[in-house]
Amino acid sequence: MPSALARxxxxxxxxxxxxxxxxxxxxxxxxxxxxxxxxxxxxxxAAAIRSVKTDLRYCAVCFNIAESDPCVICSSDERDGAVxxxxxEPLDVLAIERTGQFRxxxxxxHGAISPMNGVRPDDLKIAQLVERVRRGGxxxxxxxxxxxxxxxxxxxxxxxxxANAEVRVTRLARGLPMGGDLEYADEVTVSRxxxxxxxx
Length: 200
Prior knowledge:
Dna Topoisomerase Vi A Subunit, Chain: A, domain 2; Helicase, Ruva Protein, domain 3; 12% strand; alpha/beta; 6 strands; 40% helix
């Protein structure tokens, strides 16, 4: 039986449904939105998608997504190269940058150790991090991996690799979220909050 959808529209729906978090219904809505959009808007979207694939690269220093190599953070004289924040993904850099509190540089691992998912240390940018530390000039590494099993395993692994290096290795503090109620917090969160307490 012939499809009620024109082939170009069916193709667009199929491609959109491959995006994470986009199911068939959302893909259909997006495709019809693109169909109804003015031609310049649709062309701008297509150009933006093409540009992401052709104009971006990974910074050879920190492995963040960048237009230039080294990236603007690694090449900035206003950033403290002696303090490096280690994160799992490029989106984590954005989250930390939004705070406006961190003035150091970054190292993006591109994942976390996860034997269940077949992700080994060699699959990440850990060797490059160790080499970066060995070259010198870094006083502190802030391990800002996610507070889950994989993130903890990754932080512990990096900590062990750098145990004899002349660098201070710290971990982001964890605890109670702002606006949260103590009575609803789980035991692990309360324990971490107690461990990470500081003087007023």
